[in-house]
Amino acid sequence: MKATSALTRLLFLVYSVSCSPCGRLESLNITGGVEFSNGSVIHGGLEYVSGAWYDLEEDGALIRLGCPCIGRVCLWKCCGEGEAFSNKTCAATDHAAANPFSPPIFRGKEPLDVAAHSSFFFMHSRLCDERYLVDTSSPTERIFIQQVMWL
Questions:
Q1: CA-CA distance, 116 to 90, in Å (whole number)?
Q2: Residue 41 burial (CB < 10 Å; 0-12/13-18/19+)?
């Protein structure tokens, strides 16, 4: 009897635990996206295949969250879309380099004629203090975003 009761509680616990395919910080709100019969959701021009999105109750409402970095190469940008980091803060800008954000792409140290915003998915975040900030105005600090070569 005790073994059956313990097994029942364990099964309930396992059933009650929901797993998401990515963490909340790696998720985007895709509530309102169109769900298709194959389980895919289209939102913002991106397809989230079955298993790359999940539903979550947040503040009493059910929202749908997508994991854009499943099946895509993601890069993190500290500021929001259309913003630039200047004087230790994010601020709206009309500077062409931020709209759309499209840093140069390289093969080794050779620049390529490839649009970063069409090759990578940029996750916009306010977590600048948790990331390494590249000082693009420094002559000694350089970063080379590399073209992805799929086999």
A1: 21
A2: buried
**pLDDT of amino acid 74:** 85
pTM of the model: 0.66
CB 74 within 8 A of CB 121: yes
d(C-alpha 117, C-alpha 120), whole Å: 6
* CB of 66 closer than 8 Å to CB of 74: no
Calculate ∠ Cα 33-90-110, nearest 5°: 85
* CA–CA distance, 145 with 121 (Å, rounded to integer): 13
List, for residues 65-77, the tens digit of each pLDDT value: 999 999 888 888 8
Q: Which amino acid is at 139?
A: P
pLDDT at 10: 37
Q: Indicate the SS3 state at residue 60.
A: coil
Rounded Cα–Cα distance for residues 118 and 138 (Å): 27
Confidence label for 4 from pLDDT (cuts 50, 70 and 90): very low
Q: Which helix (H) or strand (E) holds 29?
A: strand 28-29
The Cβ-side half-sphere exposure at 118, using a 13 Å CA radius, reads: 3
> How far is 89 from 95, CA to CA, in rounded Å?
16
Mean pLDDT on 43-49: 92
